[in-house]
Amino acid sequence: MAGRSRSADLVIVGAGAVGGWASWFAANDHGAGRVVVLERDVAGQGASSRAAGMVRAQGGSPDTVRLGMWSIAFYQRQQRLLGTDSGFGEQGYLILARTAADERKARERVAMQRAVGLDVRWVDAEKVRRLNPTLAGGFRGATFCPTDGWIDPPRNVRAYSLAMARAGVDLRERTPVLGVRTSRGRVTGVHTPTGVIATERVILTGGPTLREVGKLVGARFTVGAARHQVVVTEPHPEFQVPGRPMAFDLASGIYWRPEDGGLMWGMSNPNETPGPARDVDWDYLRLMEKKLNRVVPLTKKLGIRKAWAATIEYTPDHLPLLGPVVLRDGSELEGATVATANGHGMMWGPAIARIAADLSLTGRTRVVTRADHFRMDRFDEHGNSPFTDPIALPFPVAVDQD
Known about the structure:
CATH class of the largest domain: Alpha Beta
Largest sheet: 8 strands, mixed
Oligomer: single chain
CATH architecture of the largest domain: 3-Layer(bba) Sandwich
Mean pLDDT: 94
Distance between the termini: 35 Å
Structural class: alpha+beta
CATH superfamily of the largest domain: FAD/NAD(P)-binding domain
């Protein structure tokens, strides 16, 4: 650790989107003097650079709407704040409804979302086709938010990396965390291969590896890991029309947006055995491709330009883990905060990062009204939660409780 501080005001574990932005918020907005970020690989090397980049405020609960709205507002002001940005562009997002029950739930969501302050509305099937003529029929309509959009994930990694450097954050790549030192129920330091960093505050991120991080402090995080696949088709003129909105077919679990002149689409397999996976499951991809072909007929004639897979984290209720670290005996580890976006690092990442910095350094936040709904101890010993966000990709419903 020659030339580097052996103490810190805050140590953050993980340099993905949440950890990276949290370090900048801590240093820039809260004035934390010495912020150290420990990353076992390279910043953004995991899912943060392999995401599809979808960003929507159309959440299924008031506070997930707030997470999306806050993140979009942050992306929009990045250039002014940082002199760089994550490449966010508003394109609009259609969340499609097939049945009468789907429509009823969608209209209820719109009422809730509008009460929070989101510019969203229900549009009928005819308006859906006008907004995006590439869609086949079979839908009763959709919810539509014109301010939803997407970012460029590698550009996002670059943006928070530059922001960290300019704020004086000490990023230590290829430096795994070996343990957390505690005394009388509070954090006193973090063990690394090159020694102990003395600190009274630590934020644990880590995405799909969060469960392993939890074991270092004696906490059980109800979070699993699952394969997520993303595909980009060959180009087609119809996918190059400016302003054509993205879409999400909740019934099939597929979302899509324009990319490289073609269509980018993504999905996860809820019946797959949970666990790390970064190889493409071609059998499942082809099965889902047939579903996409029925919804977007133009894709039948288009080959695949590229495809990849990433491991992302999920929770059974589709909500983030965010708040104090609770140990297996039910006590809180003072000075320790957990923060994960539950596979929504692009969509919720900035807001979750800001809340994590707020809670760690001041104990309160204004980003959401009920941050306690995101606490890790909302889950019982069987992984059940009293909350849920219904607007999510279909992940496995259970997480092993080790």
